[in-house]
Amino acid sequence: MRRAHGRPRLAARPADRGGARFREALDDLLTNAKQAGAVRADVRVDDLTALIAGGAALRAAHRDRARGTRLVRLLLDGLRTPAVTKDAAFRDATSLQRHETAAPDVRYCEECGARLRVRPTGRPPRYCGPTCRQRARRRRTAD
């Protein structure tokens, strides 16, 4: 046995020394990632090595390189810690306004706040006139 970073470790056979060093490095990396909260706490080094081999095989087996990469990303997303925030309430997709003409009947100028006249057809107005439109454009380009 030998000590590395304060923990006892078994000495590897001379033929397997490279694999043991890789495993130790992976263990240290995984420990640091767990302490930082970037990886789930229940992931072990054995799991990680299996996921590395599986991800490489998954990407190589796909004909479409982009889809293979997407599947590997999905695989790696499973290693991340769950979100700390609560899930948002489910919103019905049909209630979302998808088109700008579905805006409410009362609108106000984005620059000065004056009430705008909304016509039943066409694009809804954003500004009350050319002066506010130019003022907003200058403000956008100055940023």
**How would you state the average pLDDT, rounded?**
76
Largest sheet, order of strands side by side? 1-2
Outline, from the CA principal axes?
Answer: elongated
Count all strands and give the number.
Answer: 4
Beta-strand content bin: 5-15%
Q: Tell me about the largest β-sheet.
A: 2 strands, antiparallel
What does this structure look like?
The protein is mostly helical. Helix content is 44%, strand content 7%. It contains four helices and four strands; from the N terminus they run E-E-H-H-H-E-E-H. The chain has helices spanning 17-36, 45-61, 65-77, 130-142, and strands at 2-4, 7-9, 107-108, 115-116. A two-stranded antiparallel sheet has the order 1-2. A hairpin with a 6-residue loop joins strand 3 and strand 4. Residues 92-99 have low confidence and may be disordered.
Protein topology:
Layout: E1 2-4, E2 7-9, H1 17-36, H2 45-61, H3 65-77, E3 107-108, E4 115-116, H4 130-142
Antiparallel strand pairs: 1-2, 3-4
Helix pairs in contact: 2-3
Give a brief outline of the structure.
The chain is mainly alpha-helical and 143 residues long. 44% of the residues lie in helices and 7% in strands.
Q: Any key phrases for this structure?
A:
two-stranded antiparallel ribbon; two-stranded antiparallel sheet; mainly alpha; 143 residues; 7% strand
